[in-house]
Automatic annotation (TrEMBL):
Residues annotated as the enzyme's active site: 367 (nucleophile)
Signal peptide as annotated in the record: none
Protein's UniProt name: 6-phospho-beta-glucosidase GmuD
Encoding gene (name): gmuD
Recorded GO MF terms: beta-glucosidase activity
Similarity field: Belongs to the glycosyl hydrolase 1 family.
GO BP: carbohydrate catabolic process
């Protein structure tokens, strides 16, 4: 007998994107430079196939047709981000009217087509003028972010009801200050901790501004990439390794944004190694004011760890990997086209953790998806036959459904991504969209998954 997977009424169906990754028009419309424009100017060869942020997927010009596509595949919601450097080219000064017009047009068009805008304020795209002040290392930049957020609420808050301060705030900390895959590509745990801390404060300033202004029933949240941390065994040393990985990569933002405080164990660990960030008196109380209404969860793959086998080399920089080793579990299922593990039950484990330890905060899957390199090889009869993506989405939805049945407060599922897009240093290497994009012609073509998900959206679920 076929099993029915029907989702709660009003479930949010859609996809996620970000400004730098889809808009293009990096030098148009009065946009200021951000760190990606700068980095590409400095080191174009670090970007896959030498493709930079100049054009990306041209949403800036094609937004009307793209929103029509969203309607055609029955999205009821869609996440985009506002580009800080488009709206306020130097990050802290005058507002750029062309950007206001652009975002007004996009928002109005979405509402007109019945697609609710979910708007994120920061998706990795620091204005260059702010980076020159030290970026998130400088507390003043967090304050400028609060002002920018407040301007967005004033400009668009009459129509936008779902706001998110940051997307994956841990990623610029990791990429920019620990593992060399974001600008300014330094490796320094003390600076990383400072960057993480000021990023959190910037979130708090934005939440406070929102609460002071919003009178219209809007909600504010944050989008976190949660990677459940699974130990190799139940041996205490493996359990400890997994707890520490969880502290660094999940709880460092999850606890302060949902519970209003940092885990003491993380503070102790950073303190022991002399890498605690600088704080000011009154910050503890301030952080309590940043608790969110809504949590977006990006889930791609788990983190599997084991106890450290060898001590770090003397003089090696302190990194989270001082405290655990990665564990390649035999038999785990891999995405052969991206190299990431596929573990759909992770969705369930995250949601049950939120139910049990985070007050069952309203949440949704804000990104989940399957990246595929050289996806054009799967083109047949004019369409990418992405059965692997259909299976991937369906397996994750099944576990999400089960978590909901068991009381998790999950309200939606957004795929990464709507259209293929430019992914930072990986540029167009891994394709994720329901629609493929030809980056030379900017032509969009629905993949097989676009047809499959349309039926899921229409039926608010599927049968298996
Ligand atoms: C997500 C990010 O974690 O991963 C996106 O929020 C990014 O911005 C996506 O594009 C895919 O990354 P990659 O490296 O596989 O292209």
């Amino acid at each position: 007998m076929a099993e029915q997977f029907t989702f709660p009424k009003g479930f949010w169906w859609g996809a996620a994107t970000s400004a730098t990754q889809i808009e293009g028009a990096a030098k148009e419309g009065g946009k200021g430079k951000n760190i990606w424009d700068q980095w590409f100017d400095e080191e174009p060869n670090r970007f896959f196939d030498g493709v930079g942020p100049g054009t990306t997927s041209d949403f800036y010009h094609q937004y009307k047709d793209d929103i029509a596509r969203m309607k055609n595949i029955h999205f009821n919601s869609f996440r985009l981000s506002i580009s800080w450097s488009r709206l306020i080219p130097d990050g802290s000064g005058e507002v750029n009217q062309e950007a206001v017009d652009f975002y007004n047009n996009v928002i109005d068009e979405m509402i007109d087509k019945g697609v609710e805008p979910f708007v994120c304020l920061y998706h990795f795209d620091m204005p260059m003028a702010m980076q020159e002040m030290g970026g998130w290392e400088n507390r003043a930049v967090a304050e400028h972010f609060g002002r920018y957020a407040s301007i967005c609420f004033d400009l668009f808050g009459d129509r936008v009801k779902k706001w998110f301060t940051h997307n994956e705030p841990i990623v610029p900390v990791e990429g920019g200050y620990m593992y060399d895959f974001h600008y300014p590509n330094v490796v320094d745990m003390k600076r990383a901790a400072q960057v993480g801390y000021h990023t959190l404060l910037s979130h708090v300033f934005a939440v406070k501004a929102f609460r002071e202004k919003d009178r219209t029933g809007g909600e504010i949240g944050v989008i976190l990439n949660l990677t459940p941390s699974y130990p190799r065994s139940s041996h205490p040393a493996d359990l400890k390794a997994s707890r520490i990985a969880d502290l660094f990569f999940n709880r460092s933002f999850l606890d302060p944004t949902v519970l209003g405080e940092y885990p003491q164990e993380l503070i102790d660990l950073l303190g022991e190694h002399g890498v605690l960030p600088d704080t000011e008196s009154g910050d503890k109380e301030l952080i309590k004011e940043g608790k969110v209404d809504l949590l977006g969860v990006n889930y791609y793959q788990p983190r599997r760890v084991k106890a450290k086998e060898n001590l770090p080399n003397p003089g090696a920089p302190i990194l989270p990997e001082w405290f655990f080793d990665h564990y390649e579990m035999p038999g785990r299922k891999m995405n052969p086209y991206r190299g990431w593990e596929i573990y759909p039950k992770g969705v369930y484990d995250i949601m049950i953790n939120l139910r049990d330890n985070y007050g069952n905060i309203p949440s949704f899957i804000s990104e989940n998806g399957m990246g595929v390199q050289d996806e054009a090889r799967f083109m047949e009869n004019g369409m990418i036959q992405d059965d692997y993506r259909i299976e991937f989405i369906q397996d994750h939805l099944e576990w999400l459904h089960r978590a909901i049945e068991e009381g998790a407060n999950a309200k939606g599922y957004h795929l990464w991504s709507f259209i293929d897009n430019w992914s930072w240093m990986n540029a167009y290497k891994n394709r994720y969209g329901y629609f493929s994009v030809n980056i030379d012609t900017q032509e969009r073509t629905p993949k097989k998954s676009a047809y499959w998900i349309t039926a899921v959206h229409k039926n608010n679920g599927f049968e298996k």
